[in-house]
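protien #1 (seq + structre)
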Amino acid sequence: MPFGYVSPEQQMRDKADYARKGIARGRSVVVLQYEHGILFVAPNPSRALHKISEIYDKIGFAAVGRYNEFEALRLGGIRYADINGYNYARDDVTARGLANLYAQNLGQIFTESMKPFEVEIVVAEVGDSSDEDHIYRLTFDGSVFDETGLVAMGGQAEAVAARLKERYREGLSLAEALEAALFALTEPGGERPPADQLEVAVLDRNRSHRRFLRLNGPRLERLLTESVEPPAAPAPAPEQDAPPTAPEGDIDTGSDA
């Protein structure tokens, strides 16, 4: 039986390609800041299998990829948060600490396992002001990215991020932020998903204690109707009266007759 040698560099490249292809098969998720916190939006027809969840008081979680794999990460994060919050103080549980935990787990799985996790996740923490918000994106190999303003992951993430940047600005209202997210998640010429096929949640800094809140049912329906009004088309210019016509006898022909 011939022995085939594969270099470690090639193994890492093959694993990375495998994970990227798996993640790209799913639907995108977007996370963005708005005036009162952080908004999570994902097309998701399932009411039982969530892509967006609460981790702790001020911390939310969003993921794309294989459900069983990112669900295991989510549960591990909840256990970590509960133990540290109980042993120390609730304020000691931070998105940064969770991001470090996930980075170690994902990095170890990527290097030591035959099959990497086909996941990409966001851990977000809302602060008392927008300057104190934190959004961390983690990839399948344990890389951590400290994002500002917005994140798009999964599916056609680059195209979604480009559309999201067209509509995003600091200080968006919740309705405006949702409108921007739906614009980004909808392919040009495509139909937007209805409310019952959307998973939407916020980390609202104005809520006390637990900041995570799911938006669904009538509440989401009302929010969708508050989308930004398109700019009014400019009014047509009033028709100008034709210049008065001089009487026939007064026309200057320019001749010396």
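ok now protien #2
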Amino acid sequence: MSGLVLLLAALPAAAEIRVAATTANMGMLVETVGGEAVEVTVMAPNDRDPHYLEARPSMMAALRNADMVVAVGAELEIGWLPAAIDGANNGTVQPGQSGYFELARHIELIKDEGVADRARGDVHPVGNPHAYMNPENLAQAGRALAERFASLDEGNAETFRANAEAFAAQVAEKMDAWRQAMGDPLPVLSYHGDVQYLAQALNIPLVGTIEPLPGVPPTASHLSGLVRDLKGGEGVVVARVYQPDKPSRFMAQQLGWPVHLLPSDVNPGEGADAYLELIGRWVAAMTHKDA
């Protein structure tokens, strides 16, 4: 019996908080702040656009067993997360409960100056949800997430807070380095509005989107108008790897600009270093400088 007791004492403690993260970037934030006190399941594959997924049994299973769900919010996951939560039959992770956390509720969203309307195909009616492209937003949300974890696991509260502050310091160091190396960045044409937060944070000029509205495929007339307006200047075209590449390559060819197709999420299980390296690739693409 004593040998069994010693063996059990030597085993690592079970994770205190089980988290279902909607995307790999949210999973990274959960692991960065929660450390060994959390167990994370990422629900959305990082090579698919989270705007257009459907609820799957695997998502419902992750939510059914979760103490928390951590989402991007701002309706990024509107097409599948509510249905997955309903199918999970877990009241703890319902919106408004302590087990429901959204990045979008802890940062200032960029909102369209016009009238956003999902009926027109606009997938950003409440504001741009791609706030995770600016690391400063994740650092800010990380502090709020630390407090939420602390409310669920008081014994690790100071560890959660220290982890969040360490991540915020790491982000600040990177952002300062990118700003100091910035110089005069060239204008950027993006396929979607996903780089808006990063561009705004680093004062990189955005000259338009290949989509006429978020989620609306480009028309020939829209592309012709962009070519007419941008021809003769310098710039760069950027898009995510899972977005249609033909319009981006067409615009790059017509304008004589380089085109960069990049992922926007880390791989599941990767940490803060991988996330900042990924954002650095976007910075380098948009500024023609090494990350």
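Residues 1-12 have pLDDT under 50 and may be disordered.
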